[in-house]
Amino acid sequence: MLELQHVKKYYQVGDTLTKALDDVSIAFRPKEFVAILGPSGSGKTTMLNALGGLDRYDSGDMIVNGTSTKKFKETDWDAYRNNTVGFIFQSYNLIGHLSIIDNVEMGMTLSGVGKAERKQKAVAALERVGLGQHINKAINQLSGGQMQRVAIARAIVNDPDILLCDEPTGALDTVTSEQIMQLIQELSRERLVVMVTHNPELAHQYADRIVEFADGKIQQDSDPYQESATSSAFTLKRTKMTFATAIKLSFNNIRTKKGRTFLTAFASSIGIIGVAIVLSLSNGFQKQINDTQTETLSKFPITISQVTTDQSKAQSSMSDSDKTAKNRGYLVAAKDQSESAQHVNKINTKFLNYVKNIDPEYSNNIGYTRLTGMNLLRQVEGKVTAVKFSNSDGDTQSIQQSLSSSSGVGVSSFPEPLTAGKNNFLQSNYKLLKGAYPKTATDIVVVVDSKNHTNINALKNLGFDVKNGQKVDFSKIIGTTIKVASNDDYYQKLPSDNFIPNQNLTSAYNNSKHQLKIVGVIRAKKSTNMGLLAPGIAYSDKLVRQIIQDNKNSAIVQAQKQSNTNVLTGETLTAQTKSQLMATLGSSGIPYSILIYPNNFKDKDHVLTYLDKYNKGKDKADKIIYTDLAGTMTDLTGGLMDAITYVLVAFAGISLVTSMIMIGILTYTSVLERTKEIGVLKALGARKKDITRVFDAETGILGVGSGILGVVIAYLATFPINSLLYKLTDLSNVAQLNPVHALILIVLSTVLTIIGGHLPARMASKKDAAIALRSE
Ligand code: ADP
């Protein structure tokens, strides 16, 4: 059934050639107990290893059941060891971190036998070797004889055709040796047993046949056998370790070294902790920056005013330095810097349409400030009085002031449409405190700030007699009506060609086409970055355009067009003040300024690019210059934060790599430590891949462990870090670990440690089983 034909195995070490097997030919019967005797170094173990497929022969052939093994592939040998051969070693070679049952089951586990069958067979084998009582003990609680019995149970559990024993009693006392020999003898009734021994007495007492070895050659054979040429069917079942088995093996191994494993996991988690903390910090800082940016955007929209300052000019004249100036004997009359940098934006219909076409993706809120005044009349207790209600009183200084401070008089207009829906400016950005949102052009609202304050002037102008700090019930305000009189009804012409408001406004009140009604009180939503409306009164832009439509051709506008003095006061006007007065009177629909609210900082850049495009190829005078205060204020912050994060992550990343190398070293140590186990697994039929898998599983477990540990520690560290930062900077909750980052880091740690451990794992798999088993 098993035959060696002219088998040679030489070892070349340096200059010496050792002929461990020197042309050995021998055949074995299917059932017999063969003892191999011979001095040490004569090649006994080498032959046993060759018979068991643990070691390859150099030349010759080995015939198993009539099949030549010359063409055996690696996996065939693995399967051969698993299916056909059982090994018993002098030093038992049990896997210490597995239970007795698991040790016995290992061969079956490798060949994929089901759990129940494994257990039943293992118990049967243990009972057979007389260990039925001790099944639940740990390996290190057994005596030498008992350990050898476990090893025998492991060897026979698969009912192999061949049992190979390498000095099975070499480490046992005489009494125990006899017991073991009896057991082996009993087993040889059912199969071929080949036993290497030093002990001629035992050999002669128990074995059927004695083969004597010397110098790699058979010297004597007590009962030679001639193999008949018949070959029986010989199929091998492939072995394959499942991943679950690999994990179980690794877990058990790790469990026996808890302290070391924890330290390793902790050390290699330091990289993860570093990266996690850096990420959570930059996360938090980025959030702070974004909040600030949003706030800035809402306070400082892109502004285009009819009169503006050309920042580039203002700056260039400032930075001009003239070194020869102090040597001059004269002075130079020069325009004030701010005056020379003044630029008049020619806002016309074409530009207005251009602005209207800004992609709503980037900015869907554009506000207009118009100088248009309204002739408002209010009837209180039957008496009609004029109400002052305009964005300005026509004086340039106060116009600019009121614009930059978002209307000192507390009047602003909001963009359309008024219909409810996603695009409704008020409904999406303002909370209704009382009443209703405006539905028509004549519906107006009172805007309050976060403390429910509103502009006192706006209330006074509406005809409410209020003092600073006075509380006014919503109900007293909502429902108030005012009328807008046309210029022609409101002003009367004097014989001097000047105009004055009518003394009796009752008919103007009665003639009015527009009755305005305060329909609600609103407050900006917390989430909005569109703080377009100043506290006070707000009406729709549509109303303003209607008023302009009404007044554009009125007598006073016509008269003012002709005259260079103010038709109301008789003051002399400059070109600029005249055009502003005309605008106040309602002569044109061109807004005084345009406020563009981009959705965020990125979108702002798109809007600016779009605006810059308008100026392309235009004369200096025709260019439209915008003011982007938000940009000037926060240009620095964003990029800086990114740069810092990259640098810190890179540093922390280095410690990750260090951890990886460390895991590699530790796995290497573990491989060295577990050389015997590798040998045993191989003897039981584990493939190279399976061995790699065991160590990969171990590093995988370690990687997941250290990743989770790192993330948990980093998370816990955010609390003291945050309280420290709060004390130092007043910023709360800066460090925030993003769960997605945490997950990525755990995966990263696992992948890196597996990579780090894979090389030693591959080394382990390449270990020569025969050498591994010889090692101590
Ligand atoms: P025995 O089992 O009879 O004591 P071995 O089969 O172990 O003898 O060894 C036979 C010879 O082969 C010895 O001289 C031993 O030194 C040599 N040998 C065994 N394995 C190796 C090896 N891996 N490399 C070099 N020499 C080896």
Automatic annotation (TrEMBL):
A GO-annotated cellular component: plasma membrane
Keyword hit for ATP-binding: yes
GO aspect biological process, one term: amino acid transport
Keyword ATP-binding: yes
Membrane topology field: Multi-pass membrane protein
Principal cellular location given in the protein's record: membrane
PROSITE patterns: ABC_TRANSPORTER_1, ABC_TRANSPORTER_2
One matching Pfam family: ABC_tran
UniProt protein name: Sulfate ABC transporter ATP-binding protein
Organism of provenance: Loigolactobacillus coryniformis subsp. torquens DSM 20004 = KCTC 3535
